[in-house]
Design goal:
α3 packs antiparallel against α8 (about 180-195) and α5 runs parallel beside α7. This protein has helices at about 10-25, 30-60, 65-95, 100, 120-135, 140-155, 165-180, 180-195. The two termini are about 40 Å apart. By secondary structure, the chain is an all-alpha fold. It contains eight helices and no strands. The protein has a single domain (about 10-195), classed as Up-down Bundle (Vanadium-containing Chloroperoxidase, domain 1), CATH 1.20.144. It holds the Pfam family PAP2. This is Integral membrane protein. It is found in: Cell membrane.
Length: about 240
C-alpha cells in the first residue's frame, strides 16, 4: 500500500497545505523555534509534567492516592513505549510515504526523514504519555493532553506528517494506554505499595509529610494500606482515575 492519497483535493492534503502554509508565512526564527519544540521540546515538557504530577501526589496525596498515582505515572512511559512497538508493523504494512515525497511546495523544517509516515511516532508517544498522566491525575492529564495535541500540530506544521498520521497516532497512543491500563495497574499498584513501605525507597511513592489515609483509634498511623481501585479522596481535581 503505497500512499493513502496523492490527490491534492483530498481534505487530508488540503489541511496539510493549510497548516504547513503557516510555516511559509512565519519568520525564520519562529520556524526554528517550532522545529526544536516539535522535535524535542514538547516531549521534554511532558516528562517534566509527569514528574511534577508525581511530586505533587507524593507530597499532598493520601497514602492510597499516592500509591495509585505512582503506579499510573510509571505506566505512562511504559504504555507509550508499547504503542511505539505496535506502530512498527503498522508502518510496515501501510507503507505511506512522507508527504514531502508526494507533494511539492511544502515547507519542510526537518530533513532526513526516510521512514514511513503513518502513523506518527511523535503523536503516538506524546498521547500515550499524556493519557497515562491523565490516568494518574485529571488536572495534570488535561495539561498533558494539550501538549500532546500541540505535538501533533507541530508535525503537520513542519511538513513531515499528514493530519491523518497525527490522528492515527493519537488513537493508537490512547487505545494502548487505556485498554492495557487495568492489567498494568493490577500489576504496578501492589508493586508501588510494597515500595512505599520500604524504609529506603518509600520516598519514591510517598513523602513523610503527606497526609495519612488511615489511623487507629488513638490517631496513630497504621501504615500504608493496599490501595483500593477508584477510591481517591481530597480535591476533586486530584482524584485518580486508575482502577
Amino acid at each position: 500500500m503505497a500512499g493513502l492519497e496523492l490527490d491534492g483535493s483530498n481534505p487530508d492534503v488540503s489541511l496539510l497545505y493549510d497548516i504547513n502554509g503557516l510555516a511559509k508565512a512565519a519568520p525564520t526564527w519562529f520556524d526554528r523555534v517550532m522545529e526544536f519544540v516539535g522535535e524535542y521540546g514538547i516531549m521534554f515538557g511532558l516528562v517534566l509534567l509527569g514528574l511534577w504530577c508525581w511530586w505533587s501526589m507524593r507530597k499532598r496525596g493520601t497514602a492510597e492516592d499516592s500509591v495509585t498515582a505512582a503506579a499510573a505515572i510509571v505506566w505512562a512511559p511504559l504504555a507509550a513505549a508499547i504503542a511505539i512497538l505496535i506502530n512498527v508493523p503498522i508502518r510496515g504494512f501501510v507503507e505511506r510515504p512522507r508527504p514531502f515525497n508526494d507533494h511539492e511546495g511544502l515547507e519542510v523544517l526537518i530533513h532526513g526523514k526516510t521512514d514511513f509516515s503513518f502513523v506518527s511516532d511523535h503523536s503516538t508517544l506524546a498521547m500515550g504519555i499524556a493519557v497515562g498522566i491523565f490516568v494518574a491525575n485529571r488536572k495534570f492529564g488535561l495539561y498533558a493532553i494539550g501538549l500532546a495535541i500541540f505535538a501533533g500540530f507541530s508535525r503537520i506544521y513542519m511538513g513531515v506528517h499528514y493530519p491523518t498520521d497525527v490522528i492515527g497516532g493519537f488513537a493508537l497512543g490512547t487505545a494502548v494506554t487505556l485498554l492495557l491500563a487495568p492489567l498494568a495497574m493490577a500489576l504496578l499498584t501492589p508493586l508501588m505499595a510494597a515500595v512505599s513501605r520500604s524504609p529506603r525507597v518509600g520516598w519514591f511513592v510517598r513523602s513523610k509529610s503527606a497526609p495519612v489515609a488511615y489511623a487507629d483509634e488513638h490517631g496513630e498511623a497504621m501504615g500504608i494500606p493496599e490501595p483500593r481501585p477508584g477510591s481517591g479522596r481530597g480535591d476533586p481535581g486530584e482524584k485518580d482515575l486508575a482502577a
